[in-house]
Fold:
Amino acid sequence: MNEAQHTRLIKEEAKRLGFLSCGVSKAEFLEEEAPRLERWLKQNRNGEMGYMENHFDKRLDPTLLVPDSKSVISLLLNYYPSEVQSDDTYHISKYAYGTDYHFVIKDKLKHLLAFIQEEIGEVHGRAFVDSAPVLDKVWAAKSGLGWIGKHSNVLTKQVGSFYFIAELIVDLKLAYDSPVTDHCGSCTACIDACPTQAIVEPYVVDGSKCISYFTIELKNEIPSNVRGQFDDWIFGCDVCQDVCPWNRFSKSHNEPLFNPNPELLSMTKKDWEEITESVFQTVFKNSAVKRTKFSGLQRNINFVKD
Structure:
């Protein structure tokens, strides 16, 4: 089989595994991204996310992560829910409604890599799900899965942006896809709607101002100068995606593991304020919400409530 046939085979299997789409780009140094990332870090846009400064070279060069790698296979997995929380309650990001995506996607990627090795032969590679120094959005855009929008998320005309991004970096040469064009135009909906003005200029998000940062990444007390700006978000924030015109085309996912615990959707503000550790453990048993721990969630609720 040739490179094109290998690529077609991989994309067909990715679809069978439930991925929304699959694109391939050449594993090479991200020359354009280097100065951009360096500038972002120098301006302290990462806040207390010190890990963003680690492995600078590896973030830009996949061959340092997987020796002799030839291709980055980027994959999208839809998480848009069929039902959302009511307006008059405290909100968590839709991506955290169900089982932690790291487990769900890692499992699918293992299957995909095993399939490649079985069908194509001795192929070495590694799976990445948002937990290693890989610039997911950049690779997704390079492989033609969408463009990076003004809110810095990847956008696709057909389905918007409510999806996870993952990669397989492999030492197999494949047929590479081309990037798509930007379709944000003159729209500034995400910039105008951001509750904390974290989108400091089109395509640049100050991570240290984002509600997701304050409610998940920040381990200390939330600064008082952002009090009253959280719009009832207690874990993550979806505002920039919710207002994006392209997300009118979002379709519900069909991954049972992403379905929320039924209790979650019926929780009122009072339920959240009175949540116990045992309820927290039950409702968020395998959820990404566990990242903030029970004490962190309580901190967030109290901050938004006051």
Observations:
- The beta strands are 21-26, 71-78, 91-92, 125-128, 147-148, 154-155, 163-170, 199-201, 204-205, 233-235.
- The longest strand covers residues 71-78.
- The domain at 3-170 is CATH 3.40.109 (NADH Oxidase).
